[in-house]
Every structure is written in C-alpha cells, then in structure tokens.
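User: Need the bound-state model for zinc ion:
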Amino acid sequence: MSGLSFSDLFIRCSYCAKPISKFQRTIDHVIPVSKGGTEDVNNKVWSCRSCNQKKKDLLPREWLQVLEEEYSKTKHKNQLDKIKKQINSILKYAGK
Ligand SMILES: [Zn+2]
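Assistant: Bound-state model below.
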C-alpha cells in the first residue's frame, strides 16, 4: 500500500465501524494464525487498534460473544448483524 487513495479515507473498523486513520489501522486475522487461521486475504479484515487488542487471539465465535455484549449496550444492532454475517461467511470459507 502506498500513497493515499480516496478509499483510504473511508476505511472503517470491521468490528466497531469507526473510521480508522492510516496510522491506527491494523489487519486482523479473523481466525487467529495461532489457532489455524491462514494468511489468506479472506481471513483478514481491517481493525482499529483497540478492537484488535481486545480480540487478541480469540476464536471468531468467542469474539462474537464479546461483541454481542458490547453491542447490547448500544443501539447499533445493524452493525452487529453485519459483523456476524461477515464472520460467518469467513468461517464458511475456511470450512470451520
Ligand atoms: Zn474497532
């Protein structure tokens, strides 16, 4: 990745949906590499530092539980549904 493209400005965290600046963004392995995840592009999503630190090496299902708890305190249920769909499609792809 080099330069700053238009889409760079609008990258959002896949988990909390907050816009993330170039310097705060991290790539999260949805299925942690330590737990059998691959370097496949389908296993990678943008994540802000704080979500990435919270997720650590939780498995997607464990992480969804954490997110469900967090989202139950907010009104952003749509975002949670989106995350669930995304994670489920990744799990399907990975055959887990
Ligand atoms: Zn986040």
